[in-house]
Amino acid sequence: MSAFIQRLLGLRIVRYGLTGGIATLIHFSLALLVLAQWPQAFALANLLGFSLAFLFSYWVQTCWVFENQLSLANALRFLLVQLTALCLSVWLSSQLNQFHNIIKVGVVIVLLPALTFVIHRFWTFSRTESS
């Protein structure tokens, strides 16, 4: 691996973004596979996609990004942060009604990962709390 790529992967925020991108692809791919078999099963497709992406994301974020131990307490905090981010994205989008959908989506996909990174860094995976 080149020195540049090694330096990039040494940055926690880069590992976080890469993991989030892969988790998004997992969710998207599994949802499409389910929908290919059952075109009306939109909710099921997204539930399965979210679930697999969540498990992947929690595991990789814990072990690689934040270099922490897997635990039920961390998993529950991780889930709480992710669900809160989902609610925040819906609320934020509703507050930006006067803007084009591209702007709303852009704000959500930039702001929320940055916010969840900070929360995960200082709360979910805080080394000062016992899990």
TrEMBL record:
Membrane topology field: Multi-pass membrane protein
Subcellular location: Membrane
Span of domain GtrA/DPMS transmembrane: 15-125
Main location: membrane
Highest taxon of the lineage: Bacteria
InterPro entries membership: GtrA_CellWall_Glycosyl, GtrA_DPMS_TM
Keyword Nucleotidyltransferase among record annotations: no
UniProt entry tagged with the keyword Coiled coil: no
The entry's keywords: Membrane, Transmembrane, Transmembrane helix
Record-annotated membrane-spanning stretches: 13-35, 42-60, 72-93, 105-123
Entry similarity comment: Belongs to the GtrA family.
Name of the protein: GtrA/DPMS transmembrane domain-containing protein
Organism: Agarivorans gilvus
Lineage: Bacteria, Pseudomonadati, Pseudomonadota, Gammaproteobacteria, Alteromonadales
